[in-house]
């Protein structure tokens, strides 16, 4: 039931802002000297030459990148954010960073176990997108989901407790690091296998459209799906790009391209590493943005979210970002080039925002310090809370296997197994 | 295909009328009996002296669910429609796929959150016509024609279910759902648990499976054996128009994810079903033919092979009790257990492959729970462990045939 859309329209001008002077052309192309494709030295030299050559033959007239818009705005003396917004963004990123640092500490102290994937360095993407969403909008993430949950509003206490495996965790200790869910905040997970969350996000977006078009409710909810560069070689990604564009679902696909899938460099795994280009192939705009700059991410996010709310369909946003730590706490992170790490460390999104706020007189150093202190206390309190919380008891073992526990069936005695109060301990045979 | 179907169907349908057309399953729980509640007097047939353990008649009355045994005289004759028609005010005849459609349509009328998604379910009306006409009535969004991407659209259904809709996801052939295994196992089965109970996934995943008429190996798969270990899902298999409609409705109303297995060869079975609304209990087995000598447990298409064998067996003087287990996960160990305690011999007839099938699990469950009541080892007749061959003769030898069932019963009842 694909409504007719003119493919040409999608690749034509898509104004990021209403005004003429800020008109952008999407898909946004990269400046040829961009170091985006950088990886290990040898790969960079070899492959970027080839790709730049390909660009030269295919490139259309130079277009304005997001960087230019930001510079433009600054030059005409209008800032991208207000003071209040700036402080909200800053606090959210500091929360993400502090929380993840505390996770590392707690992990090495034996308070949490298993696979823990930290988000250090990528905070601009989470904050840039999620702080624009309402409570009823949905977020779907991957196993690197702590900060997405925090940005969406799940309390640090609930996330830390979940990591400690306590009953007070957001999933009662049953999910763990890779399964952060919150019905209240519409955090739809938390998925351990890459790619498997994208269809779920597509379903949430479908729900939104269904409510609007079938149930005739006032529903403008959008869904944001976060996933990485490795996922972009997975079938589910493409299947969902197709369906989302086909039915104009209110979804934003956000690629957190941190160039590495554990130890696999994006360039070694992908025939065409420019992921944003895959959007137009399916009939949706593809945008590339500097994911280390929260303001740039936010500008792109604003337009993508507005598009979705207007019913114009999905957008694919590729955020060039970097994780400062290894893939997980078990990853020794020996493969990545020290120079590459240093280069991105110099582009720390928190430092960048701090600089912006101070330089533009939006905040004073002292204010920002007090935010940092507040967050430190919050995270410490979260640890104390998690420490003090009880571990799940035996009776919790089978409680949430079925929404309707009749699903455990009828026992030999004729009664439903769930009628036995001790059943959830797992004593009954299934 | 339909000729053979009618052959099996007609005979079986007639044999089934006294039991299916009665309003035994008319009421949703609390009644858990799968038999008629119409007869006021009942006889507990054939309780063996000396082996009557916990099932004295007093306990039967005391418990809410009362297994009612219809005396043998009634079961041997198929034409006891007089008694059944007194309770059945009116009925209408239809084919199994129409019964599925009726159940689906009624639920879609009842709750606007119920929607269908799958390949060719909309404009084409469904490859087996289960959704015929529904897209015209409910629109293209409620009966959604998906592209060919099982994993993604199953996941989409799961995401929609998490956010308040009640999708029915159709696999054009159950075998195609192998492509959706990631979503069915990881998300469908697990998300309610890993989210700490926050999100429910009230999906129904349905489609035709089983060995058809020379459809080839990949279109003849029995996925119930692959899915049975997934925690958090329920599986049911329909076999008659009556239970097809009833199970469809119950599955849609259930808050749990339910996989409803239909069979390619059963869609044209004809039966008269009640006009009044009814639902079949998802967790209950169905007593097809009460008996004394041996318990035959079966489901889906094999039910008809069993009933065909039953005719031969009755002529030879045997009295088999046939139970359609219907609920593949979880097993209704109450109905099954009562039967085992009565007959002490069990034969399982299924279409799954020998290795790791539903029969294998059922054998284990019976041995575990009712070992003391068995006079002979549990015998399980399954399909051969082979990719279903195309050639007609080979295909016939792949699945269990009535003659083998007769032989097995004779062997067990020696």
Automatic annotation (TrEMBL), chain A:
Q: Kindly list the cofactors needed.
A: thiamine diphosphate
- Chain segments annotated as coiled-coil in the UniProt record: 361-388
Q: Does the keyword NAD apply?
A: no
User: The Dehydrogenase E1 component domain covers which part of the protein?
Assistant: 92-392
Q: Which CDD domains match?
A: TPP_E1_PDC_ADC_BCADC (cd02000)
UniProt EC number: 1.2.4.1
Whether Coiled coil counts among this entry's keywords is yes
The chemistry this enzyme catalyses reads:
N(6)-[(R)-lipoyl]-L-lysyl-[protein] + pyruvate + H(+) = N(6)-[(R)-S(8)-acetyldihydrolipoyl]-L-lysyl-[protein] + CO2
SUPFAM superfamilies from the UniProt entry: Thiamin diphosphate-binding fold (THDP-binding) (SSF52518)
Record's keyword terms, sorted: Coiled coil, Oxidoreductase, Pyruvate, Thiamine pyrophosphate
Domain of life of the organism encoding this protein: Eukaryota
Which InterPro entries does this chain map to? DH_E1, PDH_E1_Alpha_Subunit, Pyrv_DH_E1_asu_subgrp-y, THDP-binding
> Which Pfam families does the record associate with it?
E1_dh
NCBIfam families the UniProt entry points to: PDH_E1_alph_y (TIGR03182)
Subunit structure of this entry?
Tetramer of 2 alpha and 2 beta subunits.
Q: Which PANTHER family match?
A: PYRUVATE DEHYDROGENASE E1 COMPONENT SUBUNIT ALPHA, PYRUVATE DEHYDROGENASE E1 COMPONENT, ALPHA SUBUNIT BACTERIAL AND ORGANELLAR
Protein's job: The pyruvate dehydrogenase complex catalyzes the overall conversion of pyruvate to acetyl-CoA and CO(2). It contains multiple copies of three enzymatic components: pyruvate dehydrogenase (E1), dihydrolipoamide acetyltransferase (E2) and lipoamide dehydrogenase (E3).
Protein name, entry field = Pyruvate dehydrogenase E1 component subunit alpha
Species of origin reads Camelina sativa (False flax)
Q: What is the lineage of its organism?
A: Eukaryota, Viridiplantae, Streptophyta, Embryophyta, Tracheophyta
TrEMBL record, chain B:
Domain Transketolase-like pyrimidine-binding, residue spans: 94-269
What's its catalytic activity?
N(6)-[(R)-lipoyl]-L-lysyl-[protein] + pyruvate + H(+) = N(6)-[(R)-S(8)-acetyldihydrolipoyl]-L-lysyl-[protein] + CO2
Q: Which residues form a coiled coil?
A: none
CDD domains per UniProt: TPP_PYR_E1-PDHc-beta_like (cd07036)
**Protein keywords:** Oxidoreductase, Pyruvate, Thiamine pyrophosphate
What Pfam families has UniProt attached to this entry?
Transket_pyr, Transketolase_C
UniProt cross-references to NCBIfam families, sorted A to Z: PRK09212.1
Function recorded in the entry? The pyruvate dehydrogenase complex catalyzes the overall conversion of pyruvate to acetyl-CoA and CO(2). It contains multiple copies of three enzymatic components: pyruvate dehydrogenase (E1), dihydrolipoamide acetyltransferase (E2) and lipoamide dehydrogenase (E3).
Name the chain's protein: pyruvate dehydrogenase (acetyl-transferring)
| Species per Swiss-Prot/TrEMBL record | Camelina sativa
Q: Which gene encodes it?
A: LOC104792212
